[in-house]
Amino acid sequence: MHQCSLFILVLLCVSVKDISGSWEEWWTYDGISGPGFWGLINPQWSMCNKGRRQSPVNIEPDKLLFDPWLRDIQFDKHKVSGVLQNTGQSLVFRVEKDSKHQVNISGGPLSYRYQFEEIYFHYGMEDNRGSEHQIDHHTFPGEIQLYGFNKELYHNMSEAQHKSQGIVGISLMVQVGEPINTDFRLVTSAFNKVTYRGASFPIKHLPLSSLLPNTQQYLTYEGSTTHPGCWETAVWIIFNKPIYISKQEMYALRQLMQGSQLTPKAPLGNNARPVQPLHHRTVRTNINFNKQGLQGSSNCPDMYRNMHYTEGSETLLSVPSETIANGTTSTSTTTSASLTSVTSKGNDLSNPMAEGAQLAVPKR
């Protein structure tokens, strides 16, 4: 039965490729052309099924390692222009190739300078799903991923994505609520211009650096692109604070379709690849939980004293400065505020990645 299904899959792949002329045009996030089959339908995408350093991943707070040598992330302040396009799989913004001023990304865990190239939008049709990366198995309504290529070693994204240290992926978790980023409205106001597959709309003078959350706290690990061909050449940086869009903007995003105006097919949303195993990779952070005044945090793993994980703290994710719980803001000092307690009401991810979050190892 399995051989028969695989044979049908191969026939389908061959026939569809003959019609479309390109693998890039018909892969999806579900069904027989979904993530579980990416590595089978195109030999060049074999890492999607065979790779052991794949993305996205679930971030386990009790396995984070504090690295004091991680630096701040540096973004050039230049504005960029490009095209927002509905590809039929995702909403993608790609920068103009001939722009006079390119945005460079450096610092953090990066050993090279990377040139910003594109933005991928991942989101759910409901608020309880959407992001590709997860925090302690909790998802956000969306995730915006900024990709750049290693400009010091390679000429472009096409070359870099196949090569060592070729790509940087910047992950911004998306939450529905306030405060709204007014600069981001240059993008969100164009959602209704790209409703159907193949539709595109030019966006001018986008201040990329101002789209980032107001924090220098982040998590980082080595992984892959989350779309085919899943190349294991990416350094991922996940900022420890979400960005926000309004309910109206999320509603407009959810109106986008996978197909053309004549055959719209299904909505474009729910375009998230399932989380992949870590396979013993280390996720590092620059959040110094030992300096946050968290009781018992002196036993948390770090790279000052230990090169292995230790046990001792009783919290997963503590927010001592400002905690949003059950939809309301509390400015009083809090202790032992775990991710579970923050999100216990209907999987409400109000702000589990708030500024000042403490990341520690719980008792087992």
TrEMBL record:
Question: Could you name the domain of life of the organism this protein comes from?
Answer: Eukaryota
State one Pfam family annotation: Carb_anhydrase
Ranges for domain Alpha-carbonic anhydrase: 25-287
A molecular-function term among this protein's GO annotations: carbonate dehydratase activity
Q: Where is the composition biased (Low complexity)?
A: 328-344
For this UniProt record, give its keywords in alphabetical order, as a comma-separated list. Signal
Ranges for region Disordered: 324-364
Show the Gene3D superfamilies listed in the entry.
Alpha carbonic anhydrase
**Secretion signal span:** 1-21
InterPro entries reported in the protein's UniProt record: Alpha_CARP_X/XI, CA_dom, CA_dom_sf, Carbonic_anhydrase_a-class
| GO BP, one annotated term | one-carbon metabolic process
Q: Which family does it belong to?
A: Belongs to the alpha-carbonic anhydrase family.
Protein's UniProt name: Alpha-carbonic anhydrase domain-containing protein
